[in-house]
Design a protein that fits this description.
Blueprint lengths: L2 H24 L14 E2 L5 E2 L11 E7 L5 H6 L3 H17 L2 E7 L6 E5 L1 E2 L2 E2 H4 L5 E6 L2 E7 H7 L2 H11 L4 H5 L2
Parallel strand pairs: 3-4
Antiparallel strand pairs: 1-2, 4-5, 5-9, 6-7, 8-9
């Protein structure tokens, strides 16, 4: 695969994730970040833009998108997928820098698009947020994760329910979530 086609494949997932998450959160797509997550932007209003999507200030997640071959769910669940570890480290680093909850969106050819988050964020169990549809909880390096298809998450989970969890978990500021 050429470098250009690899970038196009990544861009395709970023556009899809931005469309699904943005339409779900505020009724219009989130655009791709400038440089597609290759840099962190510090804004004059004190917000930080990190990850692959340029999200609204009240959106509680820092989203990293990966559309690559050479990984499998079996390897992720077994804790032997080095790509996943690298992706998660990047997602965690950017989320920490932007004071948001890390969310990894990953897929490969002929796979659904998966959303992966730490199971426990601020004491709240995110597996229970996605309890009504197919989800997998797994552990890697002592950290529990929850995996669900992204389309299921945005289809069945209400924004108000997610905001409620974010506020209870106190993982980002109340003003950021409520828009105040």
């Amino acid at each position: 695969m050429t470098k250009a086609s690899v970038r196009a494949k990544g861009k395709k997932l970023e556009v899809l994730a931005g469309k699904l998450l943005g339409n779900w959160w505020w009724g219009q797509p989130f655009p791709r970040s400038h440089g597609s997550g290759s840099s962190i932007v510090y804004c004059s209003d004190g917000t930080v833009i990190a990850g692959d999507l340029h999200v609204t200030k009240d959106f509680p997640f820092c989203v990293e998108c990966k559309n690559q071959e050479g990984w499998s769910l079996d390897a992720v669940f077994a804790g032997t997928c080095k790509k996943f570890e690298k992706w998660w480290d990047q997602t965690q680093r950017e989320a920490t820098e932007s004071s948001k909850i890390p969310m990894l969106i990953a897929t490969r050819n002929s796979f659904p698009v998966y959303m992966i988050m730490k199971r426990w964020n601020g004491g709240e169990d995110w597996a229970s947020v996605v309890a009504y549809y197919n989800r997998v909880v797994f552990e890697m390096n002592g950290v529990e994760f929850v995996l669900v298809e992204l389309e299921d998450f945005v289809k069945y989970k209400t924004v108000s329910r997610v905001k409620e969890y974010v506020l209870r978990a106190n993982v980002i500021s109340v003003n950021a979530v409520t828009g105040g």
